[in-house]
Amino acid sequence: MRTTISVIKADIGSVAGHVTVPEEILEYAKRRLGEAVETGLLNSFYVTHAGDDLELIMTHHKGVDNEEIHGLAWNVFRGATEEVSKRLKLYGAGQDLLKDAFSGNVRGMGPGVAEMEFEERKSDPVAVFMADKTEPGAWNIYLYKIFADPFNTAGLVIDPRLHEGFRFIVLDVQTGEEYAFDAPDDIYDLLALIGTPSRYVIKNVFRRSDGEVAAAASTTRLSLIAGKYVGKDDPVLIVRSQSGFPAMGEILEAFATPYLVAGWMRGSHVGPLMPVPLRYSKVARFDGPPRVIGLGFQISNGKLVGPVDLFDDPSFDHARRVASEIADYIRKHGPFMPHRLGPEEMEYTTLPQVLEKLRGRKD
Ligand code: F6R
Ligand code: MG
Ligand code: MG
Fold first, then answer.
1. Which of 71, 75, 164, 250 could form a disulfide with 153 if both were Cys (CB 3.0 to 4.6 A apart)?
2. For the purposes of burial, counting CB atoms within 10 Å of the CB of 21, is it exposed (0-12), middle (13-18) or buried (19 or more)?
3. Distance of alpha carbon 231 from alpha carbon 249, whole angstroms
4. CB 263 within 8 Å of CB 271
C-alpha cells in the first residue's frame, strides 16, 4: 500500500512577537489531529514548531493534494486562530491564513505544504526539515549539495544505486512554469536558475534510475499570493534516505555549512541559516538568525516512528558558532546591502515615501 507524508505549516500566532509558538497552540493541534487518527483519516502525526510556525507532520493513505487532509490542516489552523490565538491575543493571530473560505486545497491560501507518496520499502527513513525566517529558495543550495555534489554526498560516486543521479524539478515562482534538469548532465543549467533562489525554487527531486520521489519542498511565496508583505514563507522539506537515496549523514552534512539565505529581520535581510535542535527552535537575535530544525522518522506500515532531533548533536555546534560569527559580521553592515536585501526583495520598504519626500528638494 502507498503511504503519504504531508507536512503542512502556517504562522497563525506566536508569543513575545514573532519568536515562538506557545504550548496552547501545540496542544490544540495535537488534540485535533488525534481526533483525525480516531476517525481513520490519519494514520499518525507529529506536531511541532519552527520558530513562530506551527508544523503538522501527518501520514495517511489519501495521496498528495487530498482535499480531506488539506481541509483538516486548514481547520486546525482556523480553529487554533479562533480558539487560542485570538483569545490569548497572540502576535500575528491568523497571519498566514490569507483566504477566508477553503476550496479544496491549502496551496495558494497561505499555509506551506510539502508532500510525497510512495510504496514503502523494507525500511523507509525520512528527514523533515523546517525553517523559520527565510524563503522556499533557501533549500536550493542544500538540495543541490545533497543530490548533485559528490563533495557532499559520497554515494553519488561510490554507490551504484545513486550513481545515475537525480532529476530536479524547478518552479519559477513568478510565472508558474516548471523545468526539469538531470544531474549530473545538466548541472550548469540547473545552477544558472537555482542560483536565483528568490525566483527559481526546487520543488521536487526524483531518482533518475526509476523515477522514485526523493525530496519534496514547499514552494509558497506569501508575498506573491497577497501582493503585499505578510511575513516570510518559512519553508519545509521532506527528504528520503538510505538504500539508493543519500544516507542520513550525507543529507545532514549539507547543513554543516550555514549558508546565507534571505529573510531574517522583517523578511528583508541576508543571514546564515543556523541548524538547531528543537529546544532552540525560536528566533532571538535580530529576529533570527534564520533557523532550521531537522527531524528523522521511519515510515513504518503507514505510521511515523520517531522523531530523532537530528541537529541535537555536538557535530553541529561548530556550524552554530560559525553562523553566530557570520551573523556578527554581516550585522555590522546595518542598513547597507548586501546585508539588507535589494529593493525588489525587501518585504518592508519606505523607499517610495522617502523618494516622494525628496521630490520637492531637488537642486
Ligand atoms: C520576519 C518576521 C519579523 C517581523 C518583525 C517586525 O519574517 O516575522 O522579523 O517582520 O518582527 O514585525 P511587525 O511588523 O509585526 O512589528
Ligand atoms: Mg510571525
Ligand atoms: Mg515564521
1. 250
2. buried
3. 32
4. yes
